[in-house]
Every structure is written in C-alpha cells, then in structure tokens.
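Proteins fold. Shown next:

***
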Amino acid sequence: IWRLLFVAALAVPIVIGIAIVIARRMLRPIDPIIAGADRVASGDIDVALEMRGRDEFSDLAGQFDAFVAELRRQRSEIERTDAETTELLGSVIPNRLVDEFKAGNRTISESLRNASIVTAIVAPKPDASVSEDDVADFSVGMATGFDDLADRLGAERLDASASALVYAVGLGSESLEVEATLRFAVELRRWTDRSIAEGDLPISVGIGVAGGDVIAHVVGTQRLAFEVLGTPRRLSEALARRAAPDGVLIDAVIAGRADRRWTIDRVDGLEAIDGVPLDGWRIVLDEALAGDGD
C-alpha cells in the first residue's frame, strides 16, 4: 500500500503538469483572437488575424476577420457620407460654421464687425445671346476659382447663387483690411477676365466692394440658407450690378481708406438705391492688374 501511495504521489504532479501543457497548447491559438478583440475594443479596427487551418479556432478567426472587415466598411461609408455632408453644407454656409451646424446648432447668428464685402455678379453682355444654363455653368466654375483665391488670400465665402457670389475679408478684425480686400477684388477681376477670354463667352462680371458691420445668420432647417444683412452687403451688390462690364466699383468707406498706391476714380451718375444716391469709385484696372496695386 505504501508503495502505491508513493507511486501515486509521484504520478499525480506529472499528470497534472502534462495536462497543463496539453491545455496550453490547445488554447494557444485563441491568444491572437483575444489580442485582436482587445484592439477592436480600444478602437483599432485595422486588425486581420488571417489564421489558416480547419479547426474551430481558425473558423472563429475567420468570423472575427469578417466582422472587423464589416466595421471597416461601415467606417468608410460614414466617412464618405460625412465628407459629402460637409461639402454640401460648405456650399451653403461658411466653412467655419459647418462643424457648429453639424454639432446640432440651428440658431447660428453673429455680428461681424469691420467686414469688407465683395460681391461678384454674372450677367450676359448687352444684346448677347446666352442661355441661363450657360450663365449658371460659368458661375459654377467661377465659384471654384474664386474659392481657391479666397483660401489663398484670406477671404471667406458668405453666399452663392446661380448668378452671384459674396465674400468677406477681415471678419472680426479691429479695423477694415482694405489692402487685402482690394487685392482680392483685383485677383477676382484677373480670374474672370482670363476665363471669359479663354472661353470667348458673351458674359460680363461686375464686382462691387463695400465695408462696415454686418449681421450673418443661418436660416431654415429643411431648406438651409445663409443670409448676410447690413448696409455693406446691400451696397456691394448694388455696386456690382452698376459696375461697367468687367469693372470693379468700391464704396466711400473703402475708397476713403485705400492706400495712395491704388488709383481710383469717382464715378458719377450711378443709379440710386431706393431713392438714395449711390456713391462709387472705380479701380483703375490697367494699373492694378499690371502691378497688383504696388
């Protein structure tokens, strides 16, 4: 009996040790699956186990990879939809307000001091035969070109329609950024002159510039719009409509603060706005385009 007990005492630890080794070898294939699950739980879905075999662990790893691949597909779809939404909102409201609107704020309103408003209006040349679709197509291309210039020169698009684009320079600045505004307006003029000449289009673009304080706010929820209200907004549009074909007109505020390097001429006889006389000054484009106002 003592001999049997002695043998049993020696055999039991050996058997237990062998069992542990076998169990570890059997469960070792699940370690990568556990590690992958931990990575997914922490937000990392760029995981692929790619375990080969015909056992239960390989099947489980294959199901895990399929699940993570579906997560990646859904993430890509969400990112694509978000990018499309951002682009769509950016065509209606200023880019700096897109994130705020997407976060749920539907009552966006702001008072913008010392804003220089630049409005460009597209219209057929007098007695020209051009369709509304041609004007709209040119406006789309103009919006792309103007937006590139705005990004480069520090301007911001406020509004857009089939025939008009509205930008602001120096929003919230302590003083009007007249120099930057005039440079932006001249660059817009340069872009439109080149595009119209290259396309041999019977289209003219008038550009108006006015400075002062405005109020901007988002309007609507189902049909979104962004409105800019105030005298500079109204004046810049009026000046753009009254600009000579392919010209730039600025208001008294901008003209009074323009550097002497800019050559500007007063324009008399402009059509009044609601009975109120309209004062305007014309930038001498030959000199401005040749030297960029320097």
In short: The first strand starts at residue 109 and ends at 124. The chain has a mean pLDDT of 79. DSSP finds nine helices and eight strands in the chain. Strands lie at 109-124, 155-160, 164-169, 203-219, 225-229, 248-250, 264-267, 280-283.
